[in-house]
Amino acid sequence: MKSRFASCGIPIIMSVLLLLSGKQSTPLAAAPAKADFPVKGKSITMIVPFPAGGQTGNIGLSLVPSLEKALGTKVVVEYRPGAGMQVGATALALAKPDGYTFGVVNLPTIVSVYLDAQRQAVFTRQSFIPIGSQSGMPSAVTVPTASKYKTLKELVDDAKARPGVVKASTPATTAHLALLQFSRAAGVDFAVVKFEGGGQSINAALGGHVDVVWTGAGDVLPMVKGGQARVLAVTSEYQYLPGVRTFRDNGHDVTVGTDQGYAVPAGTPKEIVDIMRAAFKKAMTDPELLASMDRIGAMPKFLSGEEMEELWRTQDTGMIPLLEAAGVTVKR
After folding, report:
1. What pTM, to 2 d.p., does this model score?
2. What is the CATH number of domain 44-137+257-325?
């Protein structure tokens, strides 16, 4: 008489033996397929959430040729200015998460946008996946060369003597946060006039419409070199303005500067995120990019996607006291 297992064959017998021994057979896992990204001939869009001609846009433009070489495809810059980067950040957050749209993310400017309940932003930190950071830029307080303010102390003394009278222009960006931090640290109150970009803020000061301007240090560099403006202080040392003292050197704990990085929309596949991060890291080693950044006064500050994510996370909580001190209703 034939065994009941004879017709079943060896595979069944082996399965029974494995079960009796307490071991399970495990199928070999298939290797993950490499993402076909970017598709040859298909361009990638970089959203810049500020007007053309400003330092943020110029830093983004400096990255384009090196990133194109690293990715093997064209990168198209699309300017989406408005509401202190809220318009551009909204477009990025709502873009299709396929890797073909990424954008400039300035920290901590974007944090101040979605934490402000009144602004009703449709995005949060979780709406983005960081790719990496390219540059660090201190904030600066600047006056026209004809200004009566020769030192930061003279500005502070006058602002204290005339609360709410001294006019300060600023884009609704990190520089505005530095202004708020300074007002709190020095105990002064400015009449703040906000503009969409650093260029407009600077023109208001050069035209005599305001007394001082708060922007990124790189924004005012051409005017300083041209003899049109004088920087009174910066939030951290800036190699392109040698001899200019920091706020801390002047006795004021003001440190808010900008980290310019890039992100893709949440939901972008990990394989594509990894490709973008690797391409960005490679681009940041390109001598042509570093030379281009040097020409526009942008200091390289490479942060990986993971490092940028950690910085972003700490600023989510770190900005709350500053915003609340300025009377902002914080969205928690």
Report:
1. 0.85
2. 3.40.190.150
